[in-house]
Amino acid sequence: MEISKIPIIKIPINKGIEIFIKREDLIDPDISGNKFWKLLHNIKNYLGTHPKEPFIITYGGAFSNHIAATAVLGKKLNIKTLGIIRGEELNRKWHLNPTLKKANENKMDFRFVDRESYRDKHKMTLALQEEFPNALIIPEGGTNHLAVEGIKGMLTSETKYFDYLCSAVGTGGTLAGISKYAEPEQAVIGLKVVNDESLHQRILSLSQRTNFQLEDAHYGGYGKINDELIRFINEFRAKFGIPLDPVYTGKAMMKLMKLIDQNYFEIGSKILMFHTGGLQGIEGANYLLKKQNRTLIDI
Ligand SMILES: *Cc1c(COP(=O)(O)O)cnc(C)c1O
């Protein structure tokens, strides 16, 4: 989809407020949503240095949208990519994982690291930069200052007229960008899908503004999928024709609906939720749900 034509769709609910959803998920099935915007300036900036053999290294878990997006962009732009993947055990069975299988089809190479080493990414990054001096190393989830700048692309002349701008929050880069580039009278609400108390401070330091508020939407922890969530996602799709992913946008939208029911927003408010994508993760989630004999997410 042409990025200047991303639609804003009204969700018809009868609760005295208006909700709209901006379909960043339609940018591309695999480079969807915020990951596209977060990678954009990082890669442009890097290519501007005219590296001889462009090479991007980044980090992620087994179902990471950021890994999926980096692999596709690398293939499209003819840049070699290496994914540092959390979980040594995946070394033997990565091809069973739909995200990694597809990333590999897009020519991404992998290194699998144990969870302890993965936690010390600072040390790993120093070693990788020494091994590959010309490589661009992008942090986990793609969040850095250039990523925050890229999020500006999600805010257009059409998004200016909403009272509230909402998004799922993982590492906080996306919300920081929304906060940074929102209009002065707009309020920003972040729905946290990770249980992380440091997020407020991190977003504040990236956006330098206090126009945002965070609400918990992790429902048992990052990546955990409960039955209420599956039901919500399937009903939302059946009613409104819009797919949501179980890790980010499904939890964020479910929380938004609960906040509305709790009269969190004044009557008459106009709310915009950014659909940040992540739909590639449904297949991986269903793979796990099937093994547990549970209801699947409709695709
Ligand atoms: C990564 C991601 C987010 C969270 O973005 P952050 O900038 O890490 O907070 C939200 N939604 C989807 C679909 C994502 O893939």
Automatic annotation (TrEMBL):
<protein>
    <submittedName>
        <fullName>1-aminocyclopropane-1-carboxylate deaminase/D-cysteine desulfhydrase, PLP-dependent ACC family</fullName>
    </submittedName>
</protein>
<keyword id="KW-0663">Pyridoxal phosphate</keyword>
<feature type="active site" description="Nucleophile">
    <location>
        <position position="64"/>
    </location>
</feature>
<dbReference type="GO" id="GO:0019148">
    <property type="term" value="F:D-cysteine desulfhydrase activity"/>
</dbReference>
<feature type="domain" description="Tryptophan synthase beta chain-like PALP">
    <location>
        <begin position="4"/>
        <end position="277"/>
    </location>
</feature>
<comment type="similarity">
    <text>Belongs to the ACC deaminase/D-cysteine desulfhydrase family.</text>
</comment>
<dbReference type="InterPro" id="IPR027278">
    <property type="entry name" value="ACCD_DCysDesulf"/>
</dbReference>
<dbReference type="Pfam" id="PF00291">
    <property type="entry name" value="PALP"/>
</dbReference>
<dbReference type="InterPro" id="IPR036052">
    <property type="entry name" value="TrpB-like_PALP_sf"/>
</dbReference>
<dbReference type="InterPro" id="IPR001926">
    <property type="entry name" value="TrpB-like_PALP"/>
</dbReference>
<feature type="modified residue" description="N6-(pyridoxal phosphate)lysine">
    <location>
        <position position="35"/>
    </location>
</feature>
